[in-house]
Each structure stands twice: as structure tokens, then as C-alpha cells.
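Hey,

The postdoc asked me to send both predictions to you directly instead of through the lab channel. I've kept everything plain text so nothing gets mangled by the mail client. Protein one:
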Amino acid sequence: QVQLVESGGGLVQPGGSLRLSCAASGFTFSVYDMNWYRQAPGKERELVAGIISTRRSTNYADSVKGRFTISRDNAKNTVYLQMNSLKPEDTAVYYCNARRRYTAADYWGRGTQVTVSP
């Protein structure tokens, strides 16, 4: 049974930091590309950051470049999103996504709420 379980969300003041974690199980984590998406109220879900299964290369939305860092630990089947210098516009539900290229495999977590407010 595939599971992606996000944790680490919460309420933080502008300028603060949070570290999100996504624990994966039920599939071969190391061969999947891992992504973090977010969805703010009234907006479409958007890709925040991604890290591919091999070479560890990463990509980021322009809005988070220089502030967020995605990483993965294949030994722990976990992907992380370190979020620094948080802004109110970062407020959203953050979702973990696992996707295997050239296949239909595409898994989602249930999300964790991040609220940035004074």
C-alpha cells in the first residue's frame, strides 16, 4: 500500500523557517522523482520544488528560489523541504508527490498546512 505522509507544517511568522518531511512507503522510493506542490485558497496547485531520482538534480519555482531547498534521503525513504525567509504568500497546503518517469505511477500525500502570519 503506497503512502506519502507529510509532516512539519504549522504557523510561523514572516521571516521564519519550517522544515517539511514526507515519509514514503509501499514503493521503491529511490527510483521515483519527488516533488513538493502547494495550493493556496482559491488558487491552482503549483509545483514548488522537485528532485529527480538519479543525479539528485533539483528544480524550483521562481517564487521560492534561494529560500527553499529540497533534499532526499533514500535510506530513510524521505524527502524534505527546508523553507527559509517565509512570506505570507507562502501560506498554503503543501503536498508531497512521487512520480516515476515514463510510467503512470503518480502518488500524492494528503498535505500539511503552512501558515505564515504575524
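Protein two:
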Amino acid sequence: QVQLVESGGGLVQPGGSLTLSCAASKNMPERAVMGWYRQAPGKQRDLVASITMGKMSNYEDSVKGRFTISRDNEKKTVYLQMNSLRPEDTAVYYCNARHRLGGYSYWGQGTQVTVSS
């Protein structure tokens, strides 16, 4: 079982920045697609950004130009740099590692991000 451990959430004012980190256990397949999802109260869990082992990234439209996903393959760690945060970015952010063609999918425990003045 692959384990994913997130860190870096918290409370930030609108316009501020946060960086989330997610460290995977050593048994995570190196070719796994890693990503960040978020879930606000009463809403479904949606993809924020994802990145392949080859560093190809994909972003949800509302975060393009504000968020940057990156990945350290040696450390099996994925990051999400979040700038220009808005109240609507408030959610629990979940790390995910999955097979690029389907199959396995592992989740972290989630980390709360709250954007409020």
C-alpha cells in the first residue's frame, strides 16, 4: 500500500501564498502520475493539477497562472505552489498518485487550506 503524506496547509489572507508538499512512500511506482485535488464543503472532489514522471503538467482552468505543480522524482515528492490565493480556493487539498492509464489510485489524508481575511 502506497502512503502519501501531505503538509503545508493553513490559513492565509487573500492574495497570499502557500506551498503544499506530498511525500510518497518508497513503494510508489516511479511512473505514477501525481496530482492535487481539492474538495470544498458540500462539493465534489475535483482535480487541481497533475504531473507525470516526465514533468508534463495539467491544470484546472481557475488556477492556471496562479498555481504551479512540481515534482522531485528521486524524493517521490510533489509540490503545489499556490499564489494569489482567493477565498474560493478554500478547501481540503488531497494528494493523489495513480497509474497513468487507470488501475491503482492512492490518496493522502488531506490538508486544509483556508483563504480568509
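Summary for protein two, as requested: The mean pLDDT is 96.

Thanks,
C.
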